[in-house]
Structure formats: structure tokens, C-alpha cells
Write a structure and sequence with these properties.
The chain is of the alpha/beta class. The protein has helices at residues 5-8, 11-16, 56-67, 129-133, 143-156, 251-262, 373-388, 398-401, and strands at residues 17-22, 28-29, 34-37, 41-52, 74-80, 164-165, 168-176, 181-188, 193-199, 201-204, 226-229, 243-247, 267-272, 285-289, 311-314, 342-343, 347-348, 362-364. Strands 1, 2, 3, 4, 5, 6, 10 and 18 form an eight-stranded mixed beta sheet that branches. A five-stranded parallel beta sheet has the order 11-15-12-13-14, covered by helices on one side. Strand 2 (28-29) and strand 3 (34-37) form a beta hairpin. Helix 3 packs parallel to helix 5 (143-156) and helix 3 crosses helix 7. The longest helix is centred in the C-terminal third of the chain and has 16 residues, at 373-388. The two termini are 49 Å apart. Residues 1-15 and 19-42 have low confidence and may be disordered.
Length: 407
């Protein structure tokens, strides 16, 4: 049912309410968001929620909406996903650069990837690996096993393919401070048509491991071998028999260095900016300080004081990159734990100069530095859904701003 403009006074309310029962009293309650019309109709507000991204963060949030569907505010949730299936980074693709629609490839996964953290630290308490596989499995499973487990967890909570609009790329999100409404413009990639919809809450769950951070090194344009970022690394076998320089000293550098060694490169040299990784590397892997300059070795020079390499792989991290968000509500951060302008590193309050406050209606999930991701995403999703549904009360206004100091 629709509330008339005489009662609600705006088109916004006409789209946001429905009749749920008959009552014999007439009143209006702002805090509980319900209306009594003509002394007979009991009407509640339906909160329209937009989830951007159907990777583990977005899908775990959908799972929490399912779990709490009978509690708190009623929500209508729309989830947009650019890829052809949920899974986010865990969807392996042979494509690099752009996909078949000309969109940047999201996944940074590669063949033969194995978890670099024990599965026991990734396990959901309400859906264990034993629940899913019905037998013990190794502590460091490959990518395919972890993706299968994630899909099982989502099914366990009732999330289906119909809950996600795949091949839908969000182009622009704007917030109107007067109406308190978000306007979201989305492109349906299959037919190249734009869709514009309004929402009461927006959850950005696109992650921050898909847009490479690519530093410049003096002379690198003269290098005659291959230079790639780890985002575009797909198969270690192509480097068999080569000498490879890996720049970086974090998870990707460690993992790719060992992948290269495993699949038969002649040597791997890792180049660190601050500290060595300090592992007991197998023969054929060594660590050196950060690359300063790339030089072409003259043919007459038989030996050189620096490593000679055939390929360079940049394991130099990723950017927090949200060009689809209106500039005044766009998260700007590096890979840290306590994020700026986000209460609990999740709920947006634009306290910095030039930013727009959204009264706690905007959320960014899975945006801080991470270790054991699956469980963190589930807890973050649970927190966000509890806030949106009014089940968890959080500070507002000045009580929030003093808590938003990045560290």
C-alpha cells in the first residue's frame, strides 16, 4: 500500500512504506518509523539498502540481512556486482587488464594460489569446514576450496544468486543532505543501459585489493623484459628458467617468490623498502634493499655489481579507489587499521574539512588492513546490519567526531 501525499507529504514516503495490519488508533511515531492512517491502517517504513560488491564482504553482509530478517526495521536490499558471479577476488579469471565489457579486471588471484593463513583462523563459528566438507581438510587449502566454502556459507544463510544483480557496475553515488537520500547510477553491462535508483542506506563492499599501486623507478621504461604488477600475475610457469626481481616485502611478495621458485625460475631476488621478510629462504631466493634505478647492461660488460633480471614483478600493494563515490563522501585512506571518517572503521561521518556528513547512513566494509578476513567480514556485516535495522544504537553527532582519529 502507498501512503498518500496528504499524510506523508512527500514522494519519498510513498515508496518506502507498506500496510502490515489493521489498527484502531491514529498516531505518528518518528522514532519507530510507522504511520497510522484513517484509524485503520498500520504502516511501517521499509529501508532501501544498496550493497555495492558481492565479494566475501558484500555477501557476508547479505547473509547477516538474511539472518536478522525478522528483527528490527524491514529492509529491501539490492546488491550490485560487476563480475558475472559473486566471489570478488576469489573468482579466478584468465583475463588481465580489462574484461569482455572493457571494465577493469577485479580479481587479483592467480593459478595455484594456496591460502597463506591457516583455515582455522578463517572459519565461521556458525558454519565450520567440517560442516561444509564433512571430513577434515588441510590447514592451508587452495583457492578453489576456500571459494567453495564461502559459497556454502552464503547458502547456509539463505543467500541465493537471485539476491545479486551481476554484470551491474555502479558508476555514481550521490547523497542529498536535505532529503537524506542516496542516488545511485548503475550500468547494466549486458545491454549497456544505465539505471538510476534511490536508496536510504549504502554499503560499499568493493574491497581495496583490485586497483594496483604502481611506483616509478628511474629508468624502468628502458627495461627490455616484462614488468607487471602482482594484480596481473596469473601463472608462474611463464617465468620458468628466468631471473626475476620481485619488488615488495609483504604477503604477495612472499607468496609469488615461492611460487616462482616452485615452478622453476632460475633465481628470485626480492627487493624490500624498509625491512627484510627475514625467512629461511630456499636456495635461489635472496633479499636486497629497494630498487633505485634500472640500467641496461652493455654487451661488453661481463659482470655487474647488481642483479641482472629478465622480468620485474611489482608486489607494491593496492589503492583505496572509489571513483564512483561522490567526492565529498569518498573514503581516502591507505592500508591502515583505524580509518579516517569512519566510526568503528565502518560507518561514515565526514568530519574532515570539505567532506559531507551522511548522518551515519553510509558504510564502508572490509577497508582496513586485514589478516583473517572471512570472520572479520562476517562480524563487520553483522555490526552494519544491526545498525541499519535499529538493533544497535551508536553515537551520533559530536559524540562520534571525537572518536574518528586515524592511527
Amino acid at each position: 500500500a502507498v501512503v498518500s501525499s496528504r499524510v506523508a507529504g512527500s514522494k519519498w514516503y510513498q515508496r518506502r512504506v507498506r500496510v502490515v495490519s489493521t489498527q484502531s488508533t491514529g498516531s505518528f511515531n518518528t522514532l519507530q518509523h510507522y504511520y497510522i492512517l484513517n484509524l485503520t491502517e498500520f504502516v511501517i517504513m521499509v529501508v532501501r539498502v544498496c550493497v555495492i560488491g558481492a565479494g566475501p564482504a558484500g555477501m557476508n553482509t547479505l547473509a547477516m540481512f538474511k539472518k536478522l530478517s525478522a528483527e528490527g526495521e524491514e529492509c529491501h536490499v539490492t546488491c550490485y556486482e560487476k563480475q558475472g558471479a559473486p566471489g570478488g577476488l576469489w573468482n579466478l579469471t584468465w583475463r588481465t587488464g580489462t574484461d569482455k565489457y572493457g571494465e577493469p579486471v577485479h580479481s587479483s588471484m592467480y593459478r595455484d594460489l594456496v591460502s597463506n593463513g591457516p583455515k582455522e583462523c578463517l572459519e565461521f563459528p556458525d558454519y565450520t569446514f567440517m560442516d561444509h566438507f564433512k571430513k577434515p581438510i588441510p590447514s592451508f587449502p587452495p583457492r578453489e576450496v576456500l571459494l567453495d566454502y564461502l559459497k556454502g556459507y552464503w547458502r547456509h544463510h539463505g543467500v541465493t544468486d537471485d539476491d545479486v544483480l551481476t554484470h551491474h557496475c555502479v558508476r555514481n553515488v550521490e547523497y542529498n543532505s536535505e532529503s537524506g537520500i542516496f542516488t545511485v547510477r548503475v550500468t547494466s553491462l549486458c545491454d549497456n543501459k544505465d539505471i538510476v535508483k534511490e536508496f536510504d542506506r549504502v554499503i560499499v563492499a568493493t574491497g581495496h585489493f583490485s586497483v594496483p599501486n604502481i611506483p616509478y623507478f628511474d629508468g624502468i621504461e628502458l627495461f627490455e623484459g616484462r614488468v607487471i604488477h602482482s594484480h596481473d600475475f596469473y601463472n608462474a610457469r611463464e617465468f620458468r628458467g628466468q631471473d626475476v626481481l620481485v619488488i615488495g616485502s609483504s604477503y604477495s611478495a612472499e607468496d609469488i617468490a615461492l611460487q616462482l621458485h616452485k615452478f622453476g625460475v632460475r633465481s628470485v631476488t626480492t627487493s624490500y623498502r624498509t625491512n627484510k621478510m627475514g625467512f629461511n629462504w630456499p636456495d635461489g631466493i635472496k633479499e636486497v634493499p629497494l630498487l633505485v634505478k634500472v640500467e641496461v647492461i652493455p654487451a661488453t660488460l661481463k659482470t655487474a655489481p647488481w642483479p641482472k633480471v629478465d622480468a620485474i614483478i611489482l608486489c607494491t600493494g593496492y589503492q583505496h579507489h572509489f571513483p564512483f563515490m561522490e567526492e565529498s563522501i569518498r573514503l581516502r585512506s591507505t592500508n591502515i587499521f583505524n580509518l579516517p571518517n569512519l566510526y568503528r572503521s565502518l560507518q561514515w561521518y565526514g568530519v574532515d574539512d570539505g567532506l559531507k556528513d551522511t548522518d551515519g547512513k553510509l558504510f564502508y566494509t572490509a577497508m582496513q588492513d586485514q589478516f583473517y578476513t572471512f570472520t572479520m567480514f562476517a562480524v563487520q556485516g553483522l555490526w552494519v546490519v544491526n545498525v541499519i535495522k535499529g538493533l544497535l544504537k551508536v553515537p551520533v553527532g559530536r559524540n562520534v567526531s571525537r572518536k574518528l582519529k586515524p592511527i
